[in-house]
Each structure stands twice: as C-alpha cells, then as structure tokens.
From TrEMBL:
This is Branched-chain amino acid transport system ATP-binding protein. GO terms for cellular component: plasma membrane. InterPro entries: AAA+_ATPase, ABC_AA/LPS_Transport, ABC_transporter-like_ATP-bd, ABC_transporter-like_CS, BCA_ABC_TP_C, P-loop_NTPase. GO terms for molecular function: ATP binding; ATP hydrolysis activity. Coiled coil: none annotated. It comes from Paracoccus isoporae.
Length: 260
C-alpha cells in the first residue's frame, strides 16, 4: 500500500530522515521501532504531509503522494494520530466523532436556510455512526462525557474512533501506548486487531513497548539515525545484533534487555 523510496528530511544541517526506504503492505499491522531520535515521528510526518520531504518519494497504491497536505491525504484514506491526543476538550466524546467527516451539510450557510431537513438527516446518521463506533471501542458509556475529562488511554481510543468515522485505508499511530495503563493498552490492541481483521484497516505503529509490538505487529521495521536498519518478525528483530547495538551499544550478551 505504501512505498517509501530513498526519503530524506533535513532540518538545517541535521538529517532527521536519511535515505529511508520501506514498504507497508496492504492489510498488515506494521511496527516501527527505534531509539529516541531515530527519525520515526519525522518519517510519519513526512508520509502524512505534515512536513515536506527534502527529497525522495512516497507512493500510495501506485500514486505518488509525496508532499500532499494532510487534508488531501485524509480524503485518500491516510490518517495519522499523535503521541499526545488532539481532542476537542469541551465537546462530548460523541460530538468529537460526529465532527470528523468533511463537507457536512451544516457547514453551508445556504443549507442552514434552505436545507434544514438535510442537515437533520445527516446529523441523525452521524450520531448513529458515532454511537456504533463507541460501542465497537467499548467506550459507549462515555459518549456524553466531555472529551477533556477522559484518561490518556480513553483519549487514544477516541482518536482511533475518529479514524472509523471516515473510510480510512491506512492509519499511522504514533506511540499509542504512551501514558496508557496496561488494561487500556490491551483494549486498544484488541480494537486495532479487530479493525485490521474485520474492516481491512492497514496500520503502521510507532511504539517503545516491545511486548505490545510483539503481540500486535508483523512485520517490524527498525530505524536508527534516520535510516532503516532492519525489518522482520518481532522475534527475529529482537535477535538482531545490529538492532541490539542501536538500542544498547553492548552486543548480544544484553539482548534480553531490548524488551525491557
């Protein structure tokens, strides 16, 4: 689905992404790991149109999408979440979901005058869709809660729910487990797995929790110093000397620490 070809992103004289090439296969849950400063989030930002690449290409389903802005990629089904959730804190959980789809009838001044019936019908359908999403994610009991009152893990579930309000093809999840307790993390993992298997979502996940990555992701791609260092199953990655050196700098004798 996604091919990244010799991608570079420089900030001044610093190469945050330095010639990275990788493939994210349709229908996969691909993990992206690496030490802090490896270039993972910058790579996500370039793919998702937040940053323009210095050079290189990003291809989605055979189409060159290099440098397209996030709203254009949104309409193509490419979505990206962030390490810190971006909820509308004073709106309810349901309202946060209902506002996701673009080009709603209520956004037109003319429709507010002459198309009120259409607006009511659309809002009724959006409400039903939002409630179905909240039930899928097992947070329907929070539908009328202000989003700002949610816990960190609940906000991550809400962000995942936003991707379900549109026809997402591929979702880039940036440190979905950051600040999330173990119980909610497993709920998030279950939701990702179900979306992948039942609805055909493709995922690419940045995460430092190797237990989470090992249970959820195949394949796993490793970045270090802006480059792709290795790719394979989670088990093979954890046995890879180059990967262990990138994380620890101490070689295979400490390989058991990579998941710590």
């Amino acid at each position: 689905m996604i091919q990244v070809e010799n991608l570079h992103k420089k900030f001044g004289g610093f190469s945050a992404v330095d010639g990275a090439s990788l493939t994210i296969e349709t229908g996969s849950i691909t993990g992206l790991i690496g030490p802090n400063g490896a270039g993972k989030s910058t790579l996500f930002n370039v793919i998702a149109g937040v940053h323009q690449p210095t050079s290189g290409r990003v291809i989605m389903d055979g189409e060159d999408i290099t440098g397209l802005p996030p709203h254009a990629l949104f309409h193509k089904g490419l979505l990206r979440t962030f390490q810190l959730a971006h909820e509308f804190s004073t709106m309810t959980v349901r309202e946060n979901l209902m506002m996701v789809p673009a080009s709603q009838a209520g956004e037109s001044i003319i429709n507010t005058w002459f198309g009120r019936g259409r607006i009511r019908d659309e809002e009724r359908a959006l409400r039903a869709k939002a409630d179905e999403v909240l039930e899928f994610l097992t947070i329907d009991h929070l539908s009328d809660e202000k989003a700002g009152n949610l816990s960190g893990g609940q906000k991550k579930l809400l962000e995942l729910g936003r991707t379900m309000m549109v026809d997402a093809k591929i979702v880039f999840l940036d440190e979905v487990g950051a600040g999330v307790n173990r119980t909610l993390l497993m709920t998030i993992a279950d939701a990702i797995t179900r979306l992948n298997k039942e609805r055909g979502y493709t995922f690419c996940v940045i995460e430092h929790d190797m237990d989470f990555i090992g249970k959820l992701c195949d394949p796993v791609i490793v970045m270090a110093e802006g480059k792709v260092l290795a790719q394979g199953s989670a088990d093979s990655i954890m046995q890879n000397e180059a990967v262990i050196e990138a994380y620890l700098g101490r070689g295979l004798k400490n390989k058991e620490m990579i998941g710590a």
